[in-house]
Amino acid sequence: MASLVPHQGPMCLLDHVVNADERHIVAAVISSSNSLFADERGIPVQVALEWMAQASAAWSTLQPREGGTPRQGMLLGARRFEANIDHLALDQPLEVRVSVDTVADSGLGTFEGVLYRAGNTCENDWLAKATLSVLQTPTDA
After folding, report:
1. 91: three-class secondary structure by DSSP
2. Residue 23: CB partners within 8 Å, gap ≥ 6?
3. Among 78, 85, 88, 119, which is least packed by CB within 10 angstroms?
């Protein structure tokens, strides 16, 4: 994943891309007990926002216009964040599913992110979801 997101070391939080196309990406992550964010109750569900943001960055890198090079960006905000739990159980395989709403030439984009237990096929059985607003730096920055 380090080749797809502009993060290194322990801040590169996703494990791998399961699949991606021109409008979606699914990334795998394990709520590891080795995570920077783990505590005695597990991983706070708010960390899912960063997983969603990193999945959107990976999606962008995979698009032909990017040439496979990750660009710096930032999460500007999250709206409509909902979660069905407070903490994620440790060492649980999860899937982050992100869909593109809009991406402008300016680098501003919105994405819909949903966190599921890995292998879940019921769309209504999500753990967390949000709409993300992101800004990607220009290629010449």
Report:
1. coil
2. 99, 100
3. 119
Core vs surface per residue 90-115: b (16+ CB within 10 A) or e? beeebbbbbebeebeeebebbbbbbb
Q: Evaluate the CA torsion angle 66, 69, 75, 80 in order and state its sign.
A: positive
How far is Cα 29 from Cα 13, in angstroms, rounded to an integer?
7
d(CA 93, CA 67): 30
Helix (H) or strand (E) holding 6, with range, is none
pTM attached to this predicted model: 0.88
Strand partners, 138: none
Which sequence spans correspond to the domains of the chain? 9-136
Name the one residue in this structure whose structure tokens are 């597990």: 42
CATH class of this structure's domain 9-136: alpha beta
**SS3 state of residue 61:** helix
Instruction: Dump pLDDT digits (tens) for 77-120.
Output: 999 999 999 999 999 999 999 999 998 888 899 999 999 999 88
Spatial separation of the C-alpha atoms in residues 80 and 47, rounded to whole Å:
15
Regarding predicted confidence, which is higher, 78 or 69?
78
